[in-house]
Amino acid sequence: MVLQPSERHYRDWSDRRWKGQESRVLTDRLQSPADPRRSVNSVMLADIISTVEFNHTGELLATGDKGGRVVIFQREQESKNQVHRRGEYNVYSTFQSHEPEFDYLKSLEIEEKINKIRWLPQQNAAYFLLSTNDKTVKLWKVSERDKRPEGYNLKDEEGRLRDPATITTLRVPVLRPMDLMVEATPRRVFANAHTYHINSISVNSDYETYMSADDLRINLWNFEITNQSFNIVDIKPANMEELTEVITAAEFHPHHCNTFVYSSSKGTIRLCDMRASALCDRHTKFFEEPEDPSNRSFFSEIISSISDVKFSHSGRYIMTRDYLTVKVWDLNMENRPIETYQVHDYLRSKLCSLYENDCIFDKFECVWNGSDSVIMTGSYNNFFRMFDRNTKRDVTLEASRENSKPRAILKPRKVCVGGKRRKDEISVDSLDFSKKILHTAWHPSENIIAVAATNNLYIFQDKVN
Amino acid sequence: MAVHSCSLSVFLCSGPCACYTCDLLDDVLRIFTIPILQMGKLRPGEGIMVGGLKRKHSDLEEDEKWDWGPAGLRSYQQALLRISLDKVQRGLGPRAPSLRRHVLIHNTLQQLQAALCLAPAPALPPEPLFLGEEDFSLSATIGSILRELETSMDETEPPPDPVAPVGPQHEVLSQSDPVFLEALSSRYLGDSGLDEFFLDIDTSAVEKEPALAPPAPPHNLFCAPGSWEWNELDHIMEIILGS
């Protein structure tokens, strides 16, 4: 099948004219010449963005990277003077979430790479988020401080203790304004519960619990309790030689706190109800599409492995991403998806090469827009794709510096499969497979998207006419 | 199992392997070493670079250069097998391996093994290195599959369906002889326990040898000890079992 993004004037998108706005801040954020890990003119491995997530209002955007850092961007308040100028995202806070560890007992390195970040809904002035690496989940509190107390009796302004004998008067400390300081503090550390690599975390709609999923098990936590977790799914076979399937992603239902789904490396999705039993090894629903025998190959199983699963905001649908497609499933129909979108079907004839260079194991994520009408996912060559579920139109866009001058309009791209290549098209053989967009995020209510391309973060906003 | 501890010491620590008790690597290695261990003892001193015969991927996918006849198809499958084995070999390192990746590669290996057996397996001549046919259990061993492939190449008839140049992998599984697969599964996928089998394995017989230069392609059809398949698998054994 030849991939053909719509060549006609894609009315919905083109009229809105996506404005390219590269977040220069992120590439500058790690300016520290003294850091021995930095080198000139090369992509630092530690800088590779590994997760991107908007918070529930869209005011904050968090990124995690391979070096264990979390960078939070905050949207500028729209000023009254410039009504038409959309708020830009600027760095709000940066902190080191996870450090590399060495498990001496097992002689294994534990990577500090942040696999996932999930925000908690805001309940007071502070922001809370969960961040996880392969083994440990942490709850971070991000809060602002713009006042500080002055006039202590027992210590001076620098904090040094005063000799009590020199104190002759008592005074009441007062709060004085100071420069805004954003501090991140780890409030909880949820460790030692996962033997295998954590691939997902998901906050429950009750806001009291969350789950963490690794390759073979899913654990349920209470935010207040760090030394205990409940195991709710365990697919580890008694005999490991019989292992043929692993858990690849998991998510709670957005409204029903008893319901969650998890996907597998065999292309199946299981929906579980925690009311049914304490251990949800028996699914309530089982979603699997019958295999197309005409497409069968040695790589069928690998490309059917689901890399991401996301509930729609409505809670009625789930979206899954496998290597070549994005599928939308209705929770009420288990035997096949209701929609299938080809992301880059031109790669189907290249699977052997992609197997050899390991690209076939890349895990792409997928996201819904706020109204569940559009879905987005990444591809290679810094391309990302959007599919409008209503009009059935799709578009391929590129996240690159050349295309992202301020106020530039993103031009649709096209991949040419065979035959004559038109101008502005790119042939399949020219695609750069080292430039992959695995992580994207969509603002919860507006048309603002964040696209992570290796070590660069691109934020694109709808142009306001 | 003692075998796992020895193998792990090669990759992870220079000291004694008593320190190593990892669930994860134990489990992962178990998935891959069991089929190889079932082959029985291998003679030391026979080893080649597994990757020495690896084809470039461009060779595998350029239709005009590749021969998609039955022999070409088999070569393609063998090349995929070598790539997969290479991935297994390289998958172990200082960091805990990705279980998902290993499981997917393992499942692909099993498919390749099944597909490579296109003809009914001939009765195996008594092999001093084998512990007997009835001792095979679980999935088919890589070495025995390769051996049968060599012995069956003379007897295999060309597949009835023409192999299309594009997407040869689509044809492979549909051509597998169902009778043979049934025979294969009944022979190899028995429920015999593993424990008594492993007691027979004397790992002291397997010594670590420096890698030899890649050999010429095989001339004889039987996968006898000393042939390139045995050398290849022996090398895998060396790496996994260590010294």
Number of strands of chain A: 33
- What is the overall silhouette of chain A? globular
Sheet/helix structural class of chain A:
mainly beta
N- and C-termini, Cα separation of chain B: 16 Å
Listing every helix as H and every strand as E from the N terminus to the C terminus, the arrangement of chain B reads HHHHHHHHHH
Mean pLDDT of chain B: 49
Helix content of chain A: under 10%
Assembly state of the chains shown: heterodimer
Number of helices of chain B: 10
Strand coverage percent of chain B: under 5%
Neighbour order of strands in the largest sheet of chain A: 28-1-33-32-31
Question: What's the story with the biggest beta sheet of chain A?
Answer: 5 strands, antiparallel
Low-confidence stretches of chain B: 1-65, 119-201, 207-224
Rg measurement of chain A, Å? 24 Å
InterPro entries (chain A): PP2A_PR55, PP2A_PR55_CS, WD40/YVTN_repeat-like_dom_sf, WD40_repeat_dom_sf, WD40_rpt
Family (chain A): Belongs to the phosphatase 2A regulatory subunit B family.
Protein name (chain A): Serine/threonine-protein phosphatase 2A 55 kDa regulatory subunit B
Keywords (chain A): Repeat, WD repeat
Topology summary:
The complex is a heterodimer of chains A (465) and B (243).
Chain A: H1 11-16, E1 18-22, H2 24-28, E2 49-54, E3 60-65, E4 69-75, E5 89-96, E6 101-103, E7 108-110, E8 116-119, E9 127-132, E10 137-150, E11 174-190, E12 200-203, E13 209-213, E14 217-222, E15 225-234, E16 247-252, E17 259-264, E18 269-273, E19 285-287, H3 300-304, E20 308-311, E21 317-321, E22 325-330, E23 339-342, H4 351-356, E24 366-368, E25 374-378, E26 383-388, E27 394-398, E28 408-409, E29 414-416, E30 425-427, E31 439-442, E32 448-453, E33 456-462
Parallel strand pairs in A: 29-30
Antiparallel strand pairs in A: 1-28, 1-33, 2-3, 3-4, 4-5, 6-7, 8-9, 9-10, 10-11, 12-13, 13-14, 14-15, 16-17, 17-18, 18-19, 20-21, 21-22, 22-23, 24-25, 25-26, 26-27, 31-32, 32-33
Chain B: H1 2-12, H2 23-37, H3 57-61, H4 70-90, H5 99-116, H6 142-152, H7 169-175, H8 178-188, H9 195-199, H10 228-241
